[in-house]
Write a structure and sequence with these properties.
Phosphatase 2c, domain 1, 15 strands, 53% helix, Beta-Lactamase, 3 domains, five-stranded antiparallel beta sheet, 692 residues, alpha+beta
Length: 692
């Protein structure tokens, strides 16, 4: 299958326009030959009109495609295209006239073929200028278009298309259809010419340039009109191509829109600076609103604020001071002013009664920019702009002007808005950074939580003569509760449960110290009391003064069926004796580790050994369980734990643990949070050596 090359509409339209123009020139030259020789040329006048209409359509197609493709919304560029086309047309007209004039009274100067050729060139240039400029006007008219404006332009285009073919009905005679069409197209052109919404968007400099370009277009249209309907009025050509409703209407449309645009732009010049200032203020406000990215810092936000305030007030100098609770006021930014002048102005400011107590924290709710007069060789008026965050003054901007009363109400309003927006941006920036920092802390706490969980034993040491289960939960991400086991030999096992004063990261840190001390000392085959004495000595060197650790240590000897126990200020341990079917708390005294940090601690260490029987249960826990409160501020207490054990003592250690924890949460309430860390260890003796 043959693949056809892509069709370029612009190039095709241009080629067709050139061919149609050449055909029109050829037909009219042949008609001129017939007139000179008084013979029929063989071409009816309608044929020239058809070629003329085709030329209009192809030129329209080329410029419509070209302008639409290259239009970027640049108003000056659009107007310049029209002006440059007009300048080229006028220059060509003048060159042809100079050429004819240079021939003098020669035969060539009176040659009709040369005049017809030049006439067709002028017709082509007029058509190109008028159609291209009209299409440029279309893009300006349809800027910020509405449905109504689009329909008006479509009606104008349809009327212009009909105007092309009016020549077939009225010829070149001045008949009523021609004047009616002219009036209709003139009214439509006038209505369209009132759409000048693009002019306010020009800057002051752009408006001056547009005035120059529009003046060129107006001059060009005027010259072409004068030349066409004055200089060439009495010329006798085979066909009058310029006296055409389509071209005359375009003359009118191009001229009217250019004149109205020129006048409106001229009248807008005095207010251009105001519109530009408002636009600058809007852009600055947007910059302040968007200056809260994580990579931005407060200095960058305040730089934007300084630029915005100076631009809005036309200030000649300025500086910005910041302060906080921890640091005195300091100048962090200054523009067009030196330190000496700034100190001189500060001294003058201190003498002004209007500013006494101006930045007091009691007045921050109604704190607004304030303008004062000063007597200084360089400046005569000063404006203070407060920077307030959360009812606290964090700084101020001082704007200085060389003229007296240089700050009006409009300036104060926009600068006050800038100041509030900048404070919001700074506060958002701080909150954003704090959120990022908190997120990092959360990640670090998660790591600490995983580390702490790894400090608790994954497997509890025991043999076939007893079972053990343990559970721990931290009130925060990390906590200070600790439990562990250690196997001394086949028959002896050490159990420890502890609680660091306080909670959170500091408690978790001390808990890790306790684990290290436990594993270091217990391998020395110490008794519980000896362990407590040496642990107290070790912890006294690393614990903070306001911290201590409570602990209970047990050595279970399954060969002797005995438990050796020592307590360091920890909550009592619950012991259930199956033979007597009763539960009681072990009565043994002891002082917390780290409370006494000298030899006197040994006097407070007590050790006790007692026997156990199969079926007996040992329940160790921390004070987080006992002191847990419900919505009526009633504690869970020791008796509830004892009652739960007596009811469930036949169950396995894991089941007893579950019963106690479930009862604890039910007592506190499903939605309430337990305020402290809590841990639990349950040991149940299953059989004796004699039974085995």
């Amino acid at each position: 299958m043959i693949k056809l090359p892509p069709i370029h509409i612009g190039k095709l339209s241009l080629l067709l326009a050139i061919l149609v123009w050449l055909a029109l020139l050829f037909v009219n030259l042949v008609r001129l030959v017939g007139l000179l020789n008084q013979m029929d040329s063989g071409f009816a006048i309608e044929f020239s009109w058809i070629l003329q209409i085709l030329f209009f359509i192809t030129v329209y197609g080329f410029y419509n495609y070209s302008i639409t493709k290259n239009s970027q919304g640049d108003f000056l560029n659009l107007i310049w295209r029209g002006a440059s086309t007009g300048l080229f047309a006028v220059a060509t007209f003048l060159i042809m006239d100079l050429f004819i004039s240079s021939l003098g009274e020669s035969k060539l100067a009176r040659d009709p073929f040369l005049h017809v050729f030049f006439y067709h060139i002028r017709f082509g240039l007029i058509t190109i200028f008028l159609i291209s400029t009209s299409l440029l006007w279309q893009h300006l008219i349809l800027y910020q278009k509405t449905k109504r404006v689009v329909k008006q332009w479509q009606a104008f285009e349809i009327a212009m298309l009909v105007g092309m073919f009016l020549v077939f009905f009225s010829g070149n005679d001045s008949e009523y259809p021609f004047f009616f069409g002219m009036a209709l197209l003139g009214i439509l052109a006038l209505i369209l010419s009132t759409n000048l919404k693009w002019i306010p968007y020009l800057t002051f400099k752009e408006k001056w340039k547009s005035l120059l370009f529009l003046a060129i277009i107006i001059s060009t249209v005027s010259f072409l009109l004068w030349y066409t309907f004055s200089i060439e009025k009495d010329q006798n050509y085979p066909v009058n191509l310029t006296w055409n409703l389509f071209l005359i209407s375009l003359f009118w449309f191009v001229l009217v829109y250019a004149v109205l645009s020129f006048l409106v732009t001229l009248f807008n010049l005095p207010t251009s600076s105001v519109f530009e200032q408002k636009l600058t203020e809007a852009i600055n406000f947007q910059r302040l609103s968007q200056s809260i990215q994580p990579e931005e810092n407060e200095e960058q936000v305040l730089d934007i604020l300084m630029d915005s305030c100076m631009s809005a007030s036309y200030a000649d100098a300025a500086w910005l001071s910041m302060k906080s609770k921890d640091t005195p006021e300091r100048t962090i930014n200054e523009r067009f002013i030196d330190a000496t002048t700034r100190e001189e102005i500060n001294d003058l400011i201190q003498q002004d009664k209007a500013l006494q107590g101006w930045d007091s924290d009691k007045l921050t709710d109604n704190l607004k920019p304030i303008s004062i007069r000063i007597h200084h060789p360089s400046f005569e008026s000063v404006l203070f702009v407060p920077l307030v965050i959360n009812k606290s003054v964090i700084g101020k901007i001082v704007l200085c002007k060389e003229v007296r009363d240089g700050f009006n109400k409009e300036m104060l309003n926009i600068i006050s808005t800038f100041g509030r927006q900048a404070c919001i941006a700074v506060e958002n920036h701080r909150l954003l950074n704090q959120a990022i920092l908190n997120e990092r802390y959360q990640e670090e706490l998660k790591i600490a939580q995983r580390v702490q969980k790894s400090l608790l034993p994954a497997k509890l040491d025991h043999n076939q003569f007893f079972d053990i289960s343990a559970y721990s939960n931290a009130a925060d991400e990390v906590g200070g509760d600790y439990y562990d086991t250690y196997k001394l030999d086949e028959d002896r096992y050490v159990l420890i449960i502890g609680d660091v004063s306080g909670k959170g990261t500091s408690a978790a840190f001390h808990m890790s110290q306790m684990k290290g001390i436990f594993h270091s000392l217990i391998q020395l085959n110490l008794s519980p009391s000896e362990f407590m004495i040496k642990a107290n000595a070790a912890l006294s060197k690393c614990l903070e003064r306001n911290h201590f650790i409570t602990a209970s240590v047990f050595i279970i000897d399954t060969s002797q069926q005995t438990i050796c126990h020592s307590r360091a200020g920890h909550v009592p341990t619950l012991f259930h004796q199956e033979a007597e079917n009763k539960s009681a708390y072990l009565e043994i005294d002891g002082l917390g580790l780290g409370i006494l940090r000298n030899k006197q601690y040994e006097n407070h260490v007590v050790e006790k050994t007692f026997a156990y029987q199969p079926g007996d249960v040992l329940v160790m826990f921390t004070d987080g369980i006992v002191e847990a409160k419900n919505d009526k501020s009633i504690q869970f207490g020791y008796e509830r734990i004892r009652s739960l054990l007596e009811v469930n003592q036949k169950l396995s250690p894991q089941e007893i643990q579950t019963k106690i924890i479930d009862s604890l949460h039910s007592f506190v309430g499903g939605d309430r949070v337990i305020d402290d860390d809590y841990s639990l260890m349950v040991v149940k003796f299953t059989q004796s050596i004699k039974e085995s």
